[in-house]
Amino acid sequence: xxxxxxxxxxxxxxxxxxxxxxxxxxxxxxxxxxxxxxxxxxxxxxxxxxxxxxxxxxxxxxxxxxxxxxxxxxxxxxxxxxxxxxxxxxxxxxxxxxxxxx
Length: 102
Known about the structure:
Layout: H1 3-13, E1 31-36, E2 41-46, H2 58-68, E3 75-80, H3 93-99
Parallel strand pairs: 2-3
Antiparallel strand pairs: 1-2
């Protein structure tokens, strides 16, 4: 796995926000997996806060388009999953502090 590419992907994910929550999707815990191989293919596994989330169609597409623009990325595959379901425990400590979850 290309660690520098993975780091760049994570940095990009931290610029994408759920429009209803003032925390980026990575620290919110919506991204379950990031894998970047030597060919530049990036595979992301992510979820949303709820299946009925208003951005269910738009957010994965935004993620794909943002990651695709990174240098060295040749392909992006975003898989949206519902299992395991998202819970506030998936948030980073920083996100919990920002949202008052302590």
